[in-house]
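can u pls check wat happens w/ zinc ion
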Amino acid sequence: MHELSIAQSLLEIVLEESRKHGMTKVRVIRLQVGELAAVVPDSLLFCFEMISENTAACGAIIEIETVPVVARCSQCQLLFQVENHVFVCPECQVPVMELVSGRDLSVMSVEGEREESDGAH
Ligand SMILES: [Zn+2]
């Protein structure tokens, strides 16, 4: 149930954003998900749909962009993209522990509709 807890914190962030901007309905949520965040997009979408019912984020479209894993070598400071979970510097062939990106999930933007002010008061 990894995705459920992610969906819950995602919903909190999205609702907080929508309140801040006075949105009554969230339309599009853009996410960046690191390859190492081990998030299954389909289950995340499924969980989000389930828990966002009766909130402003109900029915929102979620766009997920995958972020590659980038590591930095502690010896030569080289930044390189990690493929197939091989955490070894291509230059020095030493194991690399420091990750620059690829582990996190972040909300890039939240788009929605603001409350109509039709001047009826
Ligand atoms: Zn190196």
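The radius of gyration is 19 Å.
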